[in-house]
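Anyone else keep sequences and structure tokens together like this?

Example one:
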Amino acid sequence: MFTTRPELRGTFGMVSSTHWLASQTGMAILERGGNAFDAAVAAGFVLQVVEPHLNGPGGDLPIILWDARRAKVDVICGQGPGPKSATIAYFQELGLDDIPGTGLLPACVPGAFGAWLLLLSEHGTMRLRDVLEYAIEYATGGYPMVPAIAQAIAQVAPIFRSEWLESARIYLTNGVPEPGTTFRNPDLGRTYQRILEQAEGAETERERQIEAARRAFYEGFVAEAIDAACRVPAIDSSGERHAGLLTASDLAGWRARHEPSTQFTYQGATVHKTAPWGQGPVFLQQLALLQGIDLKAMGFLSADHIHTVIESAKLAFADREGWYGDPDFADVPMAALLDHDYASQRRRLIGDRASLELRPGSVSGQQPVLPRLAHHPSINRDRTHSVGDPTLLANPLGDTCHVAVIDRAGNMVAATPSGGWLQSSPAIPGLGFPLGTRAQMFNLDEGHPNALQGGKRPRTTLSPNLVTRGGEPWLAFGTPGGDQQDQWSFNFFLAHAVFGLNLQEAIDAPMFHSTHFPSSFYPHESDPGRLVAENRLELETVLHLRDRGHDLVLEGPWSLGRICVAGKDPKTGQLMAAANPRGMQGYAVGR
């Protein structure tokens, strides 16, 4: 099978990410003697600089890792909670039916910075300067601007010039930047540099320096600047100006933390995901649904294969809508949702024709609660005031990043940083970055597992993957793509684990997904029965899918999916990696 690039093989180390500069930064760290976790942190900070339309220091970050010294899988939660003062009543008083997708109101505690530091402190070996200097260099010295950044800036330039003046100062000094030009963000570089200098000035020991850097961000000058910026009303996707609810106290009261993974074993492979504060368990529910089905016999990318996977996704994502939320606040029956008998019962709902219903299941006598927005599919809504929400822009490169690393000691990590998009919230004066807008994923329905509450984590779409086999690490992978993350990643995994394609073949294969269920992003649109696929599918497959009732929309031949993967071949012991060619910026490196 022709592939756009080779599946990489080696014995030293592998890095795959959504930007070549981040991948090479991670590899440079491995070459200098750092481990996989050091490499991921350095790559992650570079991604904050070179993909500001996809992530930033104001965003969020889930990490799944295998630490060879501990021989176990861990999750690091870098999903910051909503402000303690956020209530449903407050938004109702503002006359809002949903939390806006842009501006200051949907800001949560920025979790990415703390999560990267926790990974470095607890699992890495290098000092903060060693991993942060690459990001500082690119922020101050410049980096080549990829077309998607220029496109994002161009689309929000009017709102920058009229409303978000600090963003205009950073990104429009000489007009909309041209793709390929060298772009600098000296404010961001100074922010990193100031954090580093304060940390090194306060402490000499490695771990204590990292903790001092955390304090500078969450209790020091960064938190103070964020607090001040949130007090100034800013235009958002409601069409009105609102101040934010986030305070310095919210930042000071939060820490990234370790958690156990949620897992499911399928055909000898154990897939690890976050808890249901993320959408990740839908991947596991899809595996449970397909456990009793011989997909391989159907033929790769046949109408039977695609139909079965899509119908299982509809059922799993319906359960996401009805049951998932922050388990610190909601009783999410995750064990029951992954139970064999429950999956068998749900599997019987997969028929020969495409379902047009949103059908969450009942668990242990309990009925699911669908949010209000799920009852009324919102199609062709007015987008006039959608000031830069990346999900509403014609941005073909997604809204998130990913980095996957494995080193020769067997350490493995998958991380999916996102949020803090330049186009979704005004830049904070003096810091060089905006806040995230993840609170838009809450709903305003009292009693729902994902209803807004102060100090609660929104149900994020960010969803890294780590797979073990025989108690040993096998694959670390993930993708940008919002609600599509646990469809594109799922399709990739089946292509490799079930159909036997190598990593690059599995990435390059025609991709597909459903938009049947409500989007996690404002304004939460859904398209019942909609199946989206790249137009490289066989004509016979296309016709059969339409005959079965799927509302099939064919997109460009290389338009869906952004997978990055690193792993270890269980047969040869060789390290492996591959990266997505779509968008022309993801890259894997290794030796």
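And example two:
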Amino acid sequence: MRRRTAAGPVIAIAYLIAASPAGASDLESLLRAPFPSQLVSAAQGKRLAWIANERGVRNVWTAAPPRFVPWQITSGTADDGQELTALSISRDGSTLVWVRGGHPDETGVSQNPQSLPGGIEQEIWIATAEGPPRVLAKGDSPVLSPNGRVVIMNQGHSLSCVSATAIPAPDWCTSPLLKLRGNNGRPVFSPDGRRLAFVSDRRDHSFVGVLDTETRDVTWLAPDVSRDDFPAWSPDGKQIAFLRIAGAAYGETLDITGAWPFEIWIADVTTGTGKRLFRSNDTAGGFAQMDNEGPSREPLRWTSANDLLFYSEQSGWIHLYAMSPAGGQPRDLTPGICEVESDALAPDARTLIVSSNCAAIDGRQLFRVSVADGKPERLPGGTIDVEPVFLGSQAYAFRGADAVHPTSIVVARASGEHISIYPTMPAGFPAHMLVKPEIVTFQAPDGLTIHGQLFRSTPGGAGGRRAGLLFVHGGPVRQMLPGWHYMDYYSNSYAMNQYLASRGFVVLSVNYRSGTGYGQDFRRAKDQGPRGASEYQDVLAAREYLGRLPTVDPARIGIYGGSYGGLLAAQALARNSDLFAAGVDFHGVHDWAQKARESSGAGWGIDPSLYERAYQSSPVAAADRWRSPVLFIHGDDDRSVPFSQTTDLVVRLRDRGVPVDTLIFPDEEHGFLRYASWLRAYDATAAFLIRALGSAGGMH
């Protein structure tokens, strides 16, 4: 693997931060910290790799033992808005593959936030010891074979195979490799690399199949009318375990708040004969299986020690379970009133490191857990430690952050020493000026306890009360934390909350019901979203809490948020302009019923019988009561919330004479792909809120 440029020396402290100049900091200084993600490791810790985003410039980095000095593999220099995703590494650490560019839409067009006239195509890239990084093929979701010689990828609805090295690919490796009915994906090699399991999605049902690369035969595993997914090979390669949920009935649409009882099946890969091993309870939920935006996790795996590990909400909380493939009852490896979000399995498959909120529900902590008895051992770390990966049997790495130090890659040696290897923070980053958010709780009108983080700094020379702001996150299945978030979207949100506090605002970030981190009952709260907007009462409770603070002027309280947070910001301004003096709405949903008509239930299972209730649960239903000024920010290539949701509401409000500002990004996505877009959006947000609400003091 060719190494491009060296980073600085390894440091044995949390960060190397240059002293910031005296005085107030600007927004750009808070957003300039590189954001590392997608941490992966080769077998036995031979190499680490990750993606880094530094002010919109995305690159692949790697580090090898014993010193784990970071090296930049790619040579990106532009804020081009092209994501790097799906990073994976070969077992020996010699090969890296990843995807550049977003997934094409239904017309075949990929995201192009720079509006390049020639367009953009999604590409799979590879880096090996044979030369510089290069384009391997067009496609998505690359999977390396066990020997690292070939790569399987998605190309449209088919699977294809290409050689990963200068050695010619075996005869079976062709493009297309599998051109069957349905949408075929999620390929998984058998331990010996001879067979390939895959999932064939047929809309209302799906099959798990096995391709024998020698005979070119496909065997379907216990085919049924169900939806089968997440195939996992047995250590000897003779069987496959997979998850099964019921097939779709006429008119059924995705509902993220629904319970998705599931079964674990095991099938013989030669005959296809299968049997049910386990069935969850009826309220197990499906969030752990369907959430693919947070930290990466495997919903089901078959370990080399012959255990099945799987995630489930059957206790009412997302926990990790183990059970024998011979049958019996599963063992809860992570019991407690807490949730597990990601994990790493040791090379001997007898020990796990899990990231959970079991020690502090508003953070993330690492625990070492025995697969045999579930005995946990709290590992040292910070406020927000996620996505552990093993480096051999004892050493490990993870992504860590706290209130003042953004996310870094940390290596924990077997000796117990922790070394932050990336990044070295840029000069001028104002870590010493940041506030430590206070964790607060308050009661909603129905008695539910709501958590939040309160940002307030001492105003320099400013007396009297200050303007207040509510921040509402998106998702809604997300949880804001008292530190730099592990997801880039919310890392930016945290930076913005810090910046607004530095401008004199008192900011309250609200973890409203329907979010994650507080159990299934909280996530699946009754009458939420299009069925009654029950979460809005949490916004009102947060506003009341903020308005009672002696340092806050209750007449100058605003609200801002993105996506689902944009919906709630619009909800607040529509229903209660008497309580919210101004707001900023980033790409929010404004009409549940219209979204359901356009996108098959809007992901919330909204059928025609619910359209009226969905409309009444939307901001547009109260648009005639909207008086407060608002700034709408939206990219018009949004593939999560249709741009028309903003077009429609802006037209309505302008017709009524409501003060409306807009900041529109042609060809930008939902979560802005360019740093320049984030900076413009946040600059505009701060300027608008200062103009509408006023502020007091600055960062001192």
